[in-house]
Fold these 3 entries.
Entry 1:
Amino acid sequence: MILEKKKIFNDFATSKGLRSTRQRDIILDIFLSTHQHVSVEELYLKIKFSNPGIGYATVYRTLKLFVEAGLAREILLHDGQTRYEHIVAGEHHDHLVCTGCNSIIEFEDETIEKLQNEIAARHGFMIKSHKMEMYGLCAACRQ
Amino acid sequence: MILEKKKIFNDFATSKGLRSTRQRDIILDIFLSTHQHVSVEELYLKIKFSNPGIGYATVYRTLKLFVEAGLAREILLHDGQTRYEHIVAGEHHDHLVCTGCNSIIEFEDETIEKLQNEIAARHGFMIKSHKMEMYGLCAACRQ
DNA sequence: TTGCTTTTGATATTCATTTTCAGTTACTGG
DNA sequence: CCAGTAACTGAAAATGAATATCAAAAGCAA
Ligand SMILES: [Mn+2]
Ligand SMILES: [Mn+2]
Ligand SMILES: [Zn+2]
Ligand SMILES: [Zn+2]
């Protein structure tokens, strides 16, 4: 799994003529070791802990490369922090975001995805990406 | 329609103990005269034109009041600008956003809304709001 | 190694939005 | 109608996430 993702990134880097650097390896390792929906800040702090030398800008730059490489997806919720999550091949999900405890529930719904495509088709629109988020209170936060 | 919205805001203001000010009246008038999806910047410039004295902060503050009053909805697309649109009672729509020409197509889909509620219910989640946007190219921009 | 190019990290900058605060204005009740 | 008081305003400063800058460092091909 992890080796596979590293290979994907290396192949991407090669095809783009990017150099192999210690920083990118470290950032990828640590990104792959995180759970879903890490903010840049969180990831930066985690990296900083074991690798104090790595700069903020490099983390930002590298995460964008992961997105380009198809390893990560950018998640913009309503807290002004960009988050990243792992892309699992052939899988897509959307989010229920609890405004009480900031937890995120993931869900998949084939029917909705299909309806989205129909709506787009009806308007002659070509979808490149979509976002669907529901904000509210999770079971625990409803007391 | 416009008078009705003004009444909604006045009632809201009264219920909250807010004072009636010239600035809020002007900003509401001009907001009501705009079309969908105005950015704060756009609205500010429009206001500035006829009322040079009104400050940026007041526009920001007042738009948030409109949201609270149920007159406006905040729209966060992915261009770093917060936009506001009019809320029409008993109506809800989502957006197709063209990344080519920045146009926005609105659509309603009862089935999707129903499915969203079912998903939320299944997770014991209480929805307060949701956002659904599809990004891509509109018919014109596909050439 | 050499030489060239990319990459990095510290720092400065940007840009939307929020906060601050002193002066102004709206309401209350006498 | 006025005075007192609390809310409101606008200019400017502050914030905070993200990006740009640029000199030094590192990767790579020969
Ligand atoms: Mn997710
Ligand atoms: Mn709309
Ligand atoms: Zn919760
Ligand atoms: Zn278009």
Note: Chain A touches chain B at residues 76, 78, 96, 98-99, 105, 107, 109, 111-112, 115-116, 119-120, 123-139, 142 (CB under 8 Å).
Entry 2:
Amino acid sequence: MSKDVTVDQMLSAFEAAGMRTTRPRRAMAEQLVAWGAKEKEFSSEDLWHAVQEKAPWVGRATAYRTVQLLQDLGFLDRVTFADGTERYHVVAAGHEHHHHLTCEMCHRIVPVEACIAPAAFEAMAQQSGFAISGHRLEIFGRCPDCQDDAHSC
Amino acid sequence: MSKDVTVDQMLSAFEAAGMRTTRPRRAMAEQLVAWGAKEKEFSSEDLWHAVQEKAPWVGRATAYRTVQLLQDLGFLDRVTFADGTERYHVVAAGHEHHHHLTCEMCHRIVPVEACIAPAAFEAMAQQSGFAISGHRLEIFGRCPDCQDDAHSC
DNA sequence: GCTGCTCTTGACACTAGGTATCATTTCGTG
DNA sequence: CACGAAATGATACCTAGTGTCAAGAGCAGC
Ligand SMILES: [Mn+2]
Ligand SMILES: [Mn+2]
Ligand SMILES: [Zn+2]
Ligand SMILES: [Zn+2]
């Protein structure tokens, strides 16, 4: 019943895309699965550091390259936080279009279904003459656990 | 009839906020007015370079600090582009809440009024328990002039 | 199992886009 | 004009990456 992705699914996706199933890619996939898909958020740097524990020979550039590939393959979802940092989370199966409500204190992520109506995009394209190719929506706030903390400093 | 902001308005705003009307601030305000408020977009670096022509003694840190202040004072609006770069434009008077449709090729900016309904934010806050403090919406595409150019490279 | 071609890697240099520090300068009030 | 606070410019530093490239490692064909 769990929709959590497996290491093999990730490696198969590399293969299916004509890429190789290398040791760094396996090490990173293993770390991601170890963390679970429970909306755990991490930066590329975070993931690199974590992988270093088990596989200290993995280079930083490789970690960043692999995060990019995993995002392209649809295994990672990139989220922009209020402070401008970019982080990721593993997507569970059935990844429909969605946006995120994020905590500016602890970086917690809540997916939200709110979006702009297709008709509104149509109207914009019509009025401006633009060919619209994408959009980004991020909502910021404080999660229940972080609302008491007065330190916004 | 023009709602374009003047150098004096900017400097008065600094004064009103208890800040000084210094030479770098004047030089930067003059450059902004020279460019006009016609949705001309620029990065902090762009503005610094332009100011250098007339006032080569203005430091880079000062340029960045001043852009931040002008944004805080409501004279500049920050826009995030599809490639992740941050740029600004001078806001005309009567700055209502709005978002931007931007050209991923030439960085042209078109303001749009589309947004998420307040009720939707309410619902999100209710469901998640978050205290929502802000949001960001950016729409990307190609302007009429850039649609032929096949070079997405 | 070995060969060989290619993709991939890890090290490292480098970059964009800023921010922190701090001695020096300059506002602008009295 | 004098003086204290605010602001500045030079400089060093920083984060979050990307470009380069010789060396290493998958994997298809034998
Ligand atoms: Mn998501
Ligand atoms: Mn605007
Ligand atoms: Zn939180
Ligand atoms: Zn364009």
Note: Residues A 103, 105-106, 108, 142-143, 145-146 surround zinc ion (ligand 3) (CB under 6 Å).
Entry 3:
Amino acid sequence: MNLENLIKENVVKAISELYEGTVAESAVQVQKTRKEFEGDVTVVVFPFLRTSRKSPEMTGEDLGKYLVERVDVVSDFNVVKGFLNLVINEAHWIGVLNDANANPEYGYTKVTEESPLAMIEYSSPNTNKPLHLGHIRNNLLGFSISEILKANGYKVVKTNIVNDRGIHICKSMVAWQKWGEGATPESTGKKGDHLVGDFYVKFDKEYKKEIAELMEQGMSKEEAEAEAPSIKDAREMLRKWEAKDPEVYELWRNMNQWVYDGFDVTYKKMGVDFDKIYYESDTYLVGKDEVMKGLDQGLFVKHEDGSVWADLESEGLDQKILLRSDGTSVYMTQDIGTAKLRFNDYSIDKMVYVVGNEQNYHFQVLSILLDKLGFKWGKDLYHFSYGMVELPQGKMKSREGTVVDADDLMQEMIDVARTTSQELGKLEGYTEEQAEATFEKIALGALKYFILKVDPRKNMLFNPEESIDFNGNTGPFIQYTYARIQSVLRKAKDAGIEVPEAAPVVTPSAKEIELLKNISRFPVAIADAGKDYSPAIIANYCYELVKEFNQFYHGHAMLKEENEEVRAFRLVLANCVGKVVENGMKLLGILVPERM
RNA sequence: GGUCCUGUAGCUCAGCUGGAUAGAGCAACAGCCUUCUAAGCUGUGGGUCCCAGGUUCGAGUCCUGGCAGGAUCACCA
């Protein structure tokens, strides 16, 4: 049993024995003792005064005496105002260390056959342009939350719904046909997603020009926007696509394939992956069917013009369109179709959608609709809603060219990592491949940590200069601590000093106990992160742990410690911190280097 | 206008279901490498926790009302 529950349980017992009263275990507050007081954990006694009918001080004294007497691990106590500070004995902390070391998956909950299945949808790109910084936040959050749910004992299926059809891709196709001159990724040496993105931009430029010309000829803005030749071509292209025109279909297949090949490179660099990919071109018709079925069941209504609507006014929402008057599907229809396919493919207990907060309303509606249509997870689907990424100069706008491209950003960070690392000259003896792999770990560690350490719900500011900083509360600082530990362990091995499986019982210093307390909090951090869907909790935990370790490192010799037991204890401790850091960072999708 | 989210140091962010004197990093300044990796450590300065009420032993945290910023309310996705 963990310490907190043990104490809670005994406080409840104490109150019933001392005062013949009852309090719920949940009413017992156990927290870390603040630095300025003596003790390890603190019980707040205020909630018990009504039962004890004594002053806070006396109640604290009563409980303290009881706990010291009855609970092995409690060795001493003191009472300050209404706070009962308990001193926990060394054996307990060393026990924490040995438990953590004995279990290679310390802090993780095992996944079994009976574990619930969570499906996480993330990434979900359009296929008309390359990934940018906004997608990076999405992908990192999606991947990390998948790892965190796994660590909390879920079977996890990572999924991606690729937005591969629609007017947006037709725009790129039209532009390619008109101005592409047969360009391919091979002929231009350009990454496929960037090539297709260039044509999307080209389309927009020409379209704008046409609008301006038409307006000069006296058209209104709305008219010009509808009548410009380019947009008409794109619409025509979409019609042909829906009619499965062979030529259009082949072009569509080709251009999408270029994009997928490009995305694969980006995903790989980013270190994210998927177990199952769905394509909108496969799901939109399924969605239509579901809506028609719902219509038959009387869940939806058909208007005179033929459009189909869901009336959600009884839920406090509006009317929502599900099929246009021409029978084509909208965004919501596709999401219903995708849900249907997933429902058939997996036995889903928890569905998580990692999608930006601009779609909060969409998911509120989707949840209700899926529930009406009989998906058991519809009602409590989780929209993992995250905030936007802003730049120091404001929002990113693709049309104004202020987007930060994902590939460029990662490459830039790798370049900076290389330069910094070479200046510090710590990778001597590494082959070029080993060194490059390390630069990449550091660069991506910096980027991922920078993004994941902030609360996902909040909009975040991405300052390129700060993100590339490797000092302070950063990914590389945490990686550095890991590398430091590995360096010591390597040297121990070289010197023939053994790191034992179990730590000998020594009297730890205050700083060592602080470290052990931090180690004991790892399982709690994982549980909290799972409950709140928050990689930030893991990031902050890792930071606190390594900060504590670095303080320990400066004040405590390991290899040079003469007392063999103390030396062994410290090596076990360092080894354990390294392991926890590695496993913690893994939950963020961040790799740790052996040297840096 | 309706709904939802956010507001903490100059800047970027923590602060667990309400608990003791609100914490980090960056930036500034001052120290620490002949000693296990200085991408580190130590110290100094820096706050009306947006404002006003309320709930109670106790509020950055909960409630109400403001203020400011953002999102959304399409036969766009």
Note: DSSP finds 22 helices and 15 strands in chain A.
